[in-house]
Amino acid sequence: MSVADSVKQDLTIAMKAREKERVGALRLVLSELQKAAKDGNDDELAILRRERKRRLESAAAFRDAGRVELAEGEEAEAAVIEAYLPAELGDDELRAIVTAAIAESGATTPKDLGGVMKLAMEKTGGRADGKRVSALAREALS
């Protein structure tokens, strides 16, 4: 079953349960998934990660502006989206992947970060945020 099908089923359940906030979040997610499918982009997980990132960035901006209620709404939507994503890698697993990528690429200085990032992000399979990978790679190369 595709992620879009799962979202459709959950949307129906949320509508019957009259969960207004969840329905809104699921409709946005389903819309983005359908739009991407129409454009020929079949990577549903990448779309979900992008949408979650947008929500978290919006929440941070709202918090900085003192709009806590809007930030909480964005964070709630991010949590709904996160339920459809695979679990994030732990720090130890991620550190091992970065170390293997450094060894594989032969990187020795921070200037080699690009090659390390490319290999590490391929190995994580989208289960880690690029910022976390970059921070660990910079730490290891310093």
For the secondary structure, the number of strands is: 0
Amino-to-carboxy terminus distance? 44 Å
CATH-defined superfamily of the largest domain: Uncharacterised protein YqeY/AIM41, N-terminal domain
Number of discrete helical segments: 7
CATH architecture of the largest domain: Orthogonal Bundle
Overall 3D shape: globular
Which class of secondary structure composition applies to the elements?
mainly alpha
What's the story with the biggest beta sheet? none
Mean pLDDT, all residues: 89
Q: What is the CATH fold-level name of the largest domain? A: Hypothetical Protein Yqey, Chain: A, domain1
Order of helices and strands: HHHHHHH
β-sheet strand percentage: under 5%
Structural domains: how many: 2
Descriptive tags:
mainly alpha, 142 residues, Arc Repressor Mutant, subunit A, 2 domains, 7 helices
Structure commentary:
With 142 residues, this protein is mostly helical. The protein has two domains: 3-82, Hypothetical Protein Yqey, Chain: A, domain1 (Orthogonal Bundle); 91-141, Arc Repressor Mutant, subunit A (Orthogonal Bundle). The chain contains seven helices and no strands. The longest helix is centred in the middle third of the chain and has 21 residues, at 44-64. It starts with a helix and ends with a helix. The model has no long low-confidence stretch (mean pLDDT 89).
